[in-house]
Amino acid sequence: MVSTSEAPSVILATKLAGEECADFGAGLPQPWTELLPGGQIFAALILCTSFSEKYQGRLMQPGERADVRLPAADGVMAQTWHPTLLHRAGHQEAVAYTWLGDEAAGDRTIYVAFAPMRRKRQFFKIVGSCTGLGDLVCEPLGAEGDRQSVLIAPYIQRKLAKVWGGCGLMEQLSKYVAAYPQHRILFSGISHGATLAQAAALQFQCAQPLADVHAATWNAFKWTDS
């Protein structure tokens, strides 16, 4: 999995597109050498912020497309990608939008973008849940494998369980992975959304060990003692 905390700086993503950026990301570990200059990290950031349930994505329905304008080098025409909203899961305190990358632009990515915190009272719920840790169960789906668990803040545990199960994210995302076997899965979020994205990416990778799962997150808070 990828986390922005492992990269030198996400500010580098503003240097996307253009032949003069052909070597951009050179020297970084995979998949940064592909996702940073390719535009996927920037697209993930826009989808988990501007087009999240908190902002422009609030009234969007599956089938609608977002306009993600990628930064461009001087003198190079900027590209605009049009990812398609596939599924909405959750409400209020934990919301994930699943997007299909713009295949016309060559983007073979399924984005799972978690919305940021909406209300101040969530902060107190998060702080209050840090007094104890629960289990985040990680197990393969439909295959033999070891059942594992990771200690996790109870608030995050409850929200993820509801999004995966009651809101159908696990079922829908598994369906999309089967329908688009050549696509990577990129979880993203900032702050509260970043924490949910990190934990969700871990859980989904355990459930789908053959899937190409990554996470690009910004300013996540600690959710486990592992």
Automatic annotation (TrEMBL):
Protein name per Swiss-Prot or TrEMBL = Uncharacterized protein
Please give the superkingdom of this protein's source: Eukaryota
